[in-house]
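Narrative progress, year one. The postdoctoral researcher (J.K.) led the effort to move from monomer predictions toward full complexes, under supervision of the PI. The following entry was the first complex the group processed end to end, covering 1158 residues in total.
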Amino acid sequence: MAKVRKLTKNDKSTIVKVLKYIKKYSIFLVFSVLLAAVTVACTLYVPILTGNAIDLIIEKGLVDFDGIFAIIRMMVIVILTGALAQWLMNVCNNKITYNVIRDIREEAIRKIEVLPLKYIDGHPYGDVVSRVIADVDQFADGLLMGFTQLFTGVITILGTLGFMLTVSVPITLVVVCVTPLSLFVAAYIAKNTHSMFKKQSETRGEQTTIIDEMIGNLKVVKAYSQEKEVQVRFDEVNNRLEKCSLKAIFFSSITNPSTRFVNSIVYMLVALTGAIFAVHGRLSVGKLSCMLSYANQYTKPFNEISGVVTELQNALTCAGRVMELIEEEPQVPDAEDAVNITADGSVELADVCFTYVPEQKLIENFNLSVKPGQRFAIVGPTGCGKTTLINLLMRFYDVDSGSIKVAGRDIRNITRGSLRTSYGMVLQETWLKNGTIRDNLKMGKPEATDEEMIAAAKASHAHSFIKRLPQGYDTVINEDGGSLSQGQKQLLCIARVMLCLPPMLILDEATSSIDTRTEIKIQEAFARMMKGRTSFIVAHRLSTIREADVILVMKDGKIIEQGNHEKLLAQGGFYANLYNSQFA
Amino acid sequence: MKKLLVYLKGYKKETILAPLFKMLEASFELFVPLVIAAIIDTGIENRDIPYIVRMALLLIVLAVIGLTCSLTAQYFSAKAAVGFAAKLKSALFAHIEALSFKEIDTLGTSTLITRMTSDVNQVQSGVNLVLRLFLRSPFIVFGAMIMAFTIDVKAALIFVVAIPLLAIVVFGIMLISIPLFKKVQGALDAVLGVTRQNLTGVRVIRAFHQEASEIDSFDEKNDKLTGLQKYVGRISALMNPVTFIIVNGAIAALIWVGAIRVDNGIISQGEVVALVNYMSQILVELVKLANLIITVTKAVACGNRIQSVFEISSSMEEGKVPMDGVAEYAVEFNNVDLCYNEGADNSLSEIDFKVKKGETVGVIGGTGSGKTSLVSLIPRFYDASRGEVIVNGINVREYSFDELRKQVGIVMQKAVLFKGTIRENLSWGKKDATDEEMWQALEAAQAKEFVEGKDGGLDFEITQGGKNLSGGQRQRLTIARALVGRPDILILDDSASALDYATDAKLRQAIANLPGTMTVFIVSQRTASIMHADKIIVLDDGQIVGMGTQDELLESCEVYKEIYNSQFKKAGEA
């Protein structure tokens, strides 16, 4: 049983934000509240009718059948109205809840599309996904429960009080005074079990870490014959978990019986006082039975409400996490006077400085002048910041100072769409979207005809293997490419760019895991694509490097050498070193 | 699920006592309406206040007994459930650890982790609930009905109609909505898919300027989800109103029948009140029962999944022979085939070679050519489907796993480190390794420099998955871990891919200079890494297509030439 905590300032601002989403459906909210009132009224009226009817059944020969019949007719009407109102209320609540979360999710995806790459690179995908999916889902559960149970709960408590007062004031007072006891009992137990739960979840976390690590890397465990050692560690944590779980589970499970016990006492007190009143003729038997059933109904929402409040607080926390995402600062929007350009293949980098983290200087005063049709090879050890350059060229990140110009225009004054479609990009991590091969190939040019698409596939050596797939171009591939090999995926990515053939290219050669034959095909496809186009290649192969017009040697995020193969080799610097260790 | 119940064995007493006490509690609850009826019929009728007080005290006694029984039941069931889960987890963990690589491949480690964590938790709460409630709810439902019969048979017939009707409605709605909930889950997964795709593919999507069409595709899936949710919501929202109608309808009927029976002098007014009370009790319990059944169905499904893991046993048996070091050849493959799954094509066929002690062997070939499969046979991660793998003169099946794997150090493609200090990680290679041995291994693995630079050196704390180290650092530490044990045979399975060429070369040099006669296998995609080996094995499609030194292979082996040229091709030769 989680503890009911106070609302924080954050919670309050989240509530305000959530209310904005609900506002659109306020008419349904009004209906929902009205229907809840009708439902509760009907539910509460039934015991009164029952009581009245019982008062008409006194003993042998003393039964007022006409009266009873009238009451039963009334009961049927009340029951049916109540049931109908309850169903409609549920439908309203469903509608509000699911529409609200649909709206929230729609807003979230729109935000994701304009988030700066910095945010996306800096947050684990799983975290963002769980905000949009799991958190919103949890929020929906809480919201729905809140609507249905909190409303009806509160109305029931108030309604019952009202009805009870009309039946008997003193007995009502008895009920009102004793019932809160069950709340105190529940709160007391929750408070005292909180630390046990905390311990349990900590120990459980410890155990999950072991499971994750050891089972996740079972092959390593076995390669080093560590099974016994690991089992000992696991059992130690497992035994501790058993002990604290038992405590936590047992002590928290005391809550229900204890509150039930308090309810029994309330019930007994109503029976006692009611019966004494009845003896003195101040209360009929029917009224007594009615009071007894009220005593039961009155305590129920109290028991549920603490659960509902916890659930609502969870929901608020979850909503807060989605709102955080939705309110995240978007990327700088395209400038108002941004234009669509037609790139000619010239790129100019002047005094570019850039860094991901302020303390760590990365690219400083970088100058580069690229003429149309030139070929650049970027080389350097892993992690030297080759991808940073790609990030800047595509404007996935903005430069800190200096400027990048394409076709003589600062890229900050060009619409992102037209800038990015001027580049064709093939990255080493071959990303394909869920969908058919056709969807993937036509991604950059949806209006392309099938003939054009097939021509592009042929030019990139992808046609022959696509043809052999069970459904050809209609074969559905999932996000990881499923049954396609790494090389085939790369060919698809090349074909995707081949179809649009933009004036500039950014290519990332694969380091490994492609077999030789496919490798040769990829190189041929690359070569065909690069003909007459400005291209930036993150290069690993000697042939690519040697054929480049300019080689940029990067190390620790800086360009340390620049020139063609012969010149750099003659220089005898880092490049010469790298080259010799690899090929000598 | 059934077979898992063995783990409850140590808790026989608890498993019997928990439901028993729960039933006791329930029976005391069933007395309450009778006491109320007595208060009305005797106490109020005879104006006997002492009697009423006595009855009220009786109610308290009933409540106290109920509380005691219930607490006892909760304790026993919690103890049984938690103890059961702990034993189950320990056994499952041991079982999983004993599985061979073949089974790990088929099951997948992420599945195994889910079985160990969320599935076991579901089963635990299932067991706990069943022990507490599974007997209680039906007991109250039928108990209330039987009590009604003791009051008046004719009036009790209304119960006989109402209970099945309620059961049909409650379980009917459940049966209809459960498959629908699965559909909702499917729709949610689709929304999740698009969301994920927009994060993993953010660069490509933006490069092709496809943001708008991605939003359309998201909206479409999102709308579909919302539609389904509302539809299912409307159906499951029927549950409460319909049960409300049935129960209150039955109460109305009870009043009518009761009126007739009282008029005929067969039952009393108080007994009518008791009948009405029993009817209300049934409703509460049926709803509880429905929720319970949902939890139990889930738990049973989880239990079955766990059981299916237990049913898979390791396909390998270990031998007992100790290793001695007198053979001439460190590793021999005699006509070895390897087939991962029956009926599938061979992953390796007719592999036949011998490696002398102290030799360095390069293994090269394209993706899927069987390089990793080949070296996995040496520490017996898999069994050859045909032929023999011989280490130090004895078939690998004869050794105990422990003995064999101590002598064969393998560094896998994926550099895995565990949470803990560098020292703890290295000691996996050799339990009682001294600091000096560790530093030597680190030095050979080209890791000394950066480890010295870390806070605490060997005591530097590695986070889970080694996330506070770079890829190259992780790889070098895994190499050091293998070197600490000074294995007779060292296998580097493409384990230098994150190192630049210069470091890679230094690493190979250092390993060659280590004292003793270590036999080394280097698996690589790069010719540069293996060109100096004593022997290079060239694999293509699971077969050896060339074996010899670099010079020999450049003469005779087409595949090797092709690989070599693709990496060393001179400009102009294209």
